[in-house]
Amino acid sequence: MRHSPHDKEVALEQPEIAVFSPAPEPERPAAEEVVAGIARRCDRQKLTVATAESCTGGLLAAALTSVAGASSFFCGGIVCYSSPLKVAIGVPAELIGLHGAASLEVAAAMAQAVRTWAATDVGVAVTGAAGPLPDGNAQPGQIYIACADASRITSAELSRDLGREENRNAAVRQALALLCNSLPKG
């Protein structure tokens, strides 16, 4: 390109770059903080935990192993997405037939079954319809969580469809909270 005597040099200014941070999430303890609290309580009381997951597909086990030293309390988990595998770990087939695989009754049975199967002090289970399709009578977002120890079963139900991935994440957060609240306070 030739320059003529009539060309002028123009200095280009650098554009200003704006950096935006995402809006902060609502105040709630981070999953890692909840898991760290669970780990401390389990370690103090020498408790062990196992999980049985259906619609969360292993996300709960992943959350529980997100802290260093998780092997001191977390023995393992099973993803029992199908009814035959739920039966294989000890959930009565009649219970699934009567209430459906995605039900509070089956979540409670899964928690008891995984506790026995893994020989742990506590069993935590999640089943339900993550979406976008229903699962039996459970509509998308209907998720059932149960926590079983030697003397009781506590449970929770989510029933708000937030989309598949957020339904799964909400179920993990609820399962962690239920486990934390179910552990002896000592």
What can you tell me about this protein's structure?
The chain is globular and about 40 Å long. It has six helices and five strands, in the order αβαβαααβββα. The protein is an alpha/beta fold and 186 residues long. The protein has a single domain (47-182), classed as CinA-like (Maf protein, Alpha-Beta Complex). Helices cover 37% and strands 17% of the residues. It has helices at 31-45, 59-64, 83-88, 93-99, 104-118, 164-182, and strands at residues 49-53, 74-79, 122-128, 142-148, 153-159.
Search tags:
Maf protein, 5-stranded mixed β-sheet, 186 residues, alpha/beta, 37% helix, 5 strands, single chain
Residues in helices, as a percent range: 25-40%
What is the CATH architecture assignment? Alpha-Beta Complex
Q: Could you state the order of secondary-structure elements as H and E? A: HEHEHHHEEEH
Shape: globular
Work out the radius of gyration. 24 Å
If you average the pLDDT, what whole number results?
88
Low-confidence stretches: 17-21, 23-27
The CATH superfamily name is CinA-like
Oligomer: single chain
Strand order of the largest sheet: 2-1-3-4-5
Kindly identify the CATH topology: Maf protein
Q: How is the biggest beta sheet arranged?
A: 5 strands, mixed
Ends apart, CA distance between termini? 81 Å
Q: Which structural class matches the secondary elements?
A: alpha/beta
The total of helices stands at: 6
Number of strands: 5
